[in-house]
Known about the structure:
CATH topology of the largest domain: BirA Bifunctional Protein, domain 2
Strand content: 25-35%
Largest sheet: 11 strands, mixed
Distance between the termini: 33 Å
Number of domains: 3
Strand order of the largest sheet: 3-7-8-14-11-10-9-24-27-23-22
Number of helices: 13
Structural class: alpha+beta
CATH class of the largest domain: Alpha Beta
Number of strands: 27
Helix content: 25-40%
Radius of gyration: 26 Å
Shape: globular
CATH superfamily of the largest domain: Bira Bifunctional Protein, Domain 2
Amino acid sequence: MASENAISPTRSEDYPEWYQQVVRAADLAETSAVRGCMVIKPWGYGIWENIQRKLDNRIKETGHQNAYFPLFIPLSFFEKEAEHVEGFAKECAVVTHHRLEQKEGRLIPAAPLEEPLVVRPTSETIIGASFAKWIQSYRDLPLLINQWANVVRWEMRPRVFLRTAEFLWQEGHTAHATREEALRETMLMHEVYREFMEEVLAMPVIPGEKTAGERFPGAVSTFSVEAMMQDRKALQAGTSHYLGQNFAKSSDIKFVNEAGDFDFVHTTSWGVSTRLIGGVIMTHGDDDGLKVPPKVAPYHVVILPVIPKPEAAGEVREYAEKLREMLRESSFDGERLSVHIDNRDMRGGEKNWEWIKKGAPIRLEVGPRDIKSESAMLYRRDKGHKDKASVNLNELKNRIAGVLSEIQANYLDTARQYLKQHTSTEIRNFDELKSYFTPKKLEKPEIHGGFVLGKWCNDQAEEKRLNDLKITIRCLPLQQSGTSGKCIVTGREATVDAIFAKAY
RNA sequence: CGGGGUGUAGCUCAGACUGGUAGAGCGCACCGUUCGGGACGGUGAGGCCGGAGGUUCAAAUCCUCUCACCCCGACCA
């Protein structure tokens, strides 16, 4: 293979296909026998475990506790909140039978359930039923619960990590005595997500509120963090909802307040999913494959033993072992370094490329020459694949965590620049908006557009006009300019700033 | 659910119009050369051609039915 890049096609040649190829080349996941459901392979799941652990720490630091609720939701629970039902009904998987019986060599569902069970698409209603039992008094509040779980949404158009029928996520559910406190909670988690995406995933996001049309079914207000992928489309990376008393009323979550009166609690919910892995791929990946931000990399360092002659094998292996033990003394982002020695019996070049494609942050080559000079050859995924440096062991020990921090910072910088560079503040009217979001080559669209930050009249009826351009209002950023001007869509006087973009 | 398409080796596909012993590349196994390096040569394993029925001396190929998947729409974290 003489090709320059490990991934074909490149991002600019065919972005969606590039994405699929990276998922494959980095061995993250594959499709399964069940339509729309993916198998997450060890390298992909390792990233998820790190996302889980580091986000879980933050969830707990902000006072929440983990619990677990059933996979199945009785249909009647689900029916309670009207908007919620309408929002999710079309994509629900429903269990109607239990028990299989053999008939003529086939298995037939035999016993119909009295009440069908919905496989949770989200758990507001079933958690609400528990909350109703757990909460009696204002002294039981706030109730701050999180669940790590899988959910099922029967999507028409699945795409690995970005939109699968079953996905893994965390869903926080909290109950509060007052609107103000619930809103504070919503904003707190919104900010936790923003910080997590930027600090851990090196993925810059725009935090903001959703318009009424884009709200979570049943919510009073929805906030999201919106990230820009390298095809300049938006990815909703995490959402936080203030649910008002809607779910409290439908699930009958009442409490006695300090004055001795009955009142309904105010609830929130918030979540992020395995979609984040898709976000990491499309934020940092290049034409050689994935680049895993060091803070979520299953291995921070991969050691590649170089064995030019079989008789050197023992010596090299021993040296690699020693190097690993030395590096494991270091810590990064509050944890011990994760160092892997790739001892597989295969050609060095191929092995090296595999780890480039998987996006391991640091590769260290060690062979007889390095043993002699007491050093290792250092390669970084944020630099060219031929860009190497011989580093003395002592220096390596002192520098390794610093190099990881640099890589992490470089990824964030690059992504920030990309976001800034492709966020236009120059669009003034609908025509300009239209030309901004229209590719030059219609039959095979090139990467085009980006985010448009502009004025919006905040009239829900007018939002539909954006459908023709295949764009949506991603959010009304928290950071508002406070100036007034003309709405990009309608030309009316407007004070609200909004982000317009195509989205996943 | 509307429109289009495809099912042949682990993967990507050719063969089908015009029926006659199942093919290529990659991957895999082994041997040799090479190797601080995504190598090269040789040998080999691997498929009752999505399923059922039909036409025929003969079906991957023609016909009927069926199942599955993919793409474009509507829907979406």
